[in-house]
Amino acid sequence: WQEIKDVFQSALGHEPEQRSAWLDKACSSDAEMRGKVEAMLQAHEEAGSFIVAPAAEVAAELMADEQTETRIGKDVGPYRIVSRLGAGGMGEVYLAQDHRLGRQVALKLLPDYFTTDASRVKRFKQEARAASAISHPNIATLYDIGDVDGVSYIAMEYVQGETLAAKIQAGSLDSTQVIDIGIQVADALKEAHKQSIIHRDIKSGNIMITPDGHVKVVDFGLARVARTEEAALSGDGVLPATTEPGLVMGTVAYMSPEQALGRATDQRTDLFSLGVVLYEMTTGRLPFSGASTSETIDKIVHAQPEALARFNYTLAPRLEQIIRKCLEKEPDRRYQSARDLSIDLKNLKRDQEAGTAGERWSSRRRVALARLTIVTLALAGAGIYWFNGRGEAIDSIAVMPFANTSGDPNLDYLGDGISESITSSLSALPELKVIARISLSPYRGRDADPRALGRELGVRALLTGQVVHNGENISIVVELVDTRDNRRIWGERYNRNVRDILVVQETISREISEKLRLRLTGDEKIRLTKRYTDNTEAYRYYLKGRFYFNNTTVKDRYWKSIEYYNKAIQIDPNYALAYSGLADSYELLTHDGNTNDRVPASESMPRARAAALKALEIDDTLAEAHTSLGLIKVIYDWDFTGAEKEFKRAIELNPSYPYAHVWYGLYLTRVKGQVDEGIVELNRGLELDPFSRRLYVLLVVALNPVGRYDQVIVHMQRALEFYEFGLFHEALGRAYEGKGLYEAALAEYGKANNQGAIGRLYASWGKKGEARKVIAGLEERLKESDDVGVYLILAEIHTALGERDRAVGWLKKLDEQSKGPPWESVYRRAKLWVDLGEIDRAFQWLERAYLQRPYRLAYINTAPGFDGIRSDPRFADLLRRIGLPPISSDK
């Protein structure tokens, strides 16, 4: 250990960029030593130079396991070690048996690798002196201290039970428990402060709760003893600091501002930390937390904690006042002694107990009044009400993506999937507007203000959640907030076996409906808690399928989603939702520009159709499957009457499913030419899913070709606030170009890095020289990589320049290439031949398109670029065979 410590200290003396080379020499071939030194360096950098403890604590964790196995079953003085209880920077704690008295003890050992560290040994002995000076029922008793064969130990009372941290994690505590635990900790601190001992590490992890509710404060490893005798005699006096200025000791999230800044501390520091614990017990969360140590410290020093009532609307106002007084930034504004805090808590407990009978009567009266109000509102035809004193309806909700706090990014799918499933359940309620979960992805990880979100999303309630998955256990914490005033409507923590995840989701959906006072019919209650599978493993595979389907950053995401949907179906062949997801993935393999390996429609669309039909065979009330089938009927089967029927059925079954509205709007706009009617549906979908990237793409497909440029500009500017996406810049550029705003169009095409669009724009703009520069650049690109797609772009630019022979030359080169999927370009080639005036060739390519069925062909009757052949009988015959109505070019 001393050698590792020396190497670590020496490494700190080198600049970060020089350390690797220096470690090559210092550690030579000792990879194990180097790994431990690098871990300590990383901890030091993450913690910040003003915190000295983390690197050593990392060392303790790195090295403790090496000694643990050798200690179990061995004797340390009169104590036989039974098992390891924990470890940290100040030592390892074991459960041990005292041979002499036949009792169990908690035995803390100073690790071997710290015995040469004088400051560590001093602090270890200081803990023993501090603990030995205190005798109190709420403080773990010190039995013994000693050294045996170079091992320093402290034997303390072994407290059976659980830490307060574990108790908080297991579920919310009521006010009675909070007050009772607070009184016992305050009494323990009162005694410690009377003996001039400041704990300096009060946190929920250092407070033990026995099975009968008795509190024991443990771990005085960071305690300090006052210098003066006067302080020792004064139970209420302010104790002077002995800590070296600038040295930060303790657990950051529980520190007082002065402690976090390394300034002088006194007993009021412990009272601030106890205030943090009281806040944590009351709300289930810490008042100050950030993504890093420095961010947390900044919040402790400068930020005010969020209102407790937001997280616990049943909290007694006096208890909130007590907690807030503990958390005052300035020590002089806090409680000045643990005695004063204890008195206030005991008075509150007394008053609550005295008022219990009166509160029961008042509670019964409130319940009766609430029931009367419900009946009155129901008779008035009310649908959804939250009784918040204003009588205003809460008829809309957004379900935020649930945060994965498990520490494993591979479990992100779980939080996303659970929130999406809850969204889907709530969407089945016709009177409730539910914002789609995928639309809220831009807010992931942001500490957004509920009021601002409510205004932006147009909702009155916001559901947030956290998911912790550990082995076979899962913990889900949810909170429902009124976005009008940030008031907490409801919150709960569910700690279950992972096999019960479906039950938890149903419970959450039912609780939300009750808290929003949804008046449901019997059928709606069934739909709210409808379960599509009873197999948890199948459900988890389904969630993974949804995760990859929605994740635009994953390569081959549709193939991955197909893989997991199929695994779910293998486990549960009657899983209708998995079949519906399978249909969506196969559909998008043919035309989604984000996928890396698109396949022809003839390969994927029959599979998509089969999956959608199977889903509906299992469950005909599944709106998602009706929507999927409707899309297949549009872009592949060309059964437009049947498609409209499917879209309308999906909307009837689930009016809150955004893609039923969007695909129906696209159908009305591009197939039937009913642009205004289609825009109504598109806007409805956008209202339900206001930040979905895929939805904005579909808006472009619907509106740019029919000349609704102003609306495209508005939508794309909005989309680019959340997504820096080349396709959106390109769509915005096309809209500007359609309006004749060439400068603006050029800027957007540049942001999209679309050289083809830039070249065509220059040609249309009359800037032939600039267009030829683009052509030269593309020809240079071909020398490096024979990209057949560039041939088509060059042909389009030359066509726009009126250089027919050059365009035909590039098209012939394209024809000579055997590489590249032909279904990708048949439609564009047909349009190019129209532009070149080669009508016969244009119809040859349209016939090939008719056989291959690219999705664009379903919208050709409203597509720009075919005006030159609309009067040709062959075009009318093509529309007839596809089943499309002829649409005038000016509609």
Features:
891 residues; alpha+beta; 6-stranded mixed β-sheet; 38 helices; 17 strands
What do you see in this structure?
- The chain is of the alpha+beta class.
- Helices cover 55% and strands 10% of the residues.
- The strands form four sheets. The chain has a six-stranded antiparallel β-sheet. Strands 12, 13, 14, 15, 16 and 17 form a six-stranded mixed β-sheet that branches. A three-stranded antiparallel β-sheet has the order 7-9-10.
- A hairpin with a 2-residue loop joins β5 and β6 (151-157).
- α7 (175-194) packs antiparallel against α14, α20 packs antiparallel against α21 (557-571) and α28 (693-703) runs antiparallel to α29.
- The radius of gyration is 34 Å and the shape is elongated.
- The N and C termini lie far apart (82 Å).
Summarize the helices and strands and which ones pair or pack.
Layout: H1 2-12, H2 16-26, H3 31-47, H4 53-71, E1 75-76, E2 79-88, E3 91-98, E4 103-109, H5 118-132, E5 142-148, E6 151-157, E7 162-163, H6 164-170, H7 175-194, E8 197-198, E9 207-209, E10 215-217, E11 224-225, H8 229-233, H9 257-260, H10 267-283, H11 293-302, H12 308-311, H13 317-326, H14 338-354, H15 356-379, E12 396-399, E13 403-404, H16 412-427, E14 433-435, H17 450-457, E15 461-470, E16 473-482, E17 487-497, H18 501-515, H19 522-528, H20 536-550, H21 557-571, H22 576-588, H23 601-618, H24 623-637, H25 640-653, H26 658-671, H27 675-688, H28 693-703, H29 709-719, H30 726-738, H31 742-752, H32 755-765, H33 768-784, H34 788-801, H35 804-816, H36 826-835, H37 839-852, H38 873-882
Parallel strand pairs: 12-14, 12-15, 13-15
Antiparallel strand pairs: 1-2, 2-3, 3-4, 4-6, 5-6, 7-9, 8-11, 9-10, 15-16, 16-17
Helix pairs in contact: 1-3, 3-4, 7-10, 7-14, 10-13, 13-14, 16-18, 16-20, 20-21, 20-22, 21-22, 22-23, 22-24, 23-24, 24-25, 24-26, 25-26, 26-27, 26-28, 27-28, 28-29, 29-30, 30-31, 31-32, 32-33, 32-34, 33-34, 34-35, 34-36, 36-37, 37-38
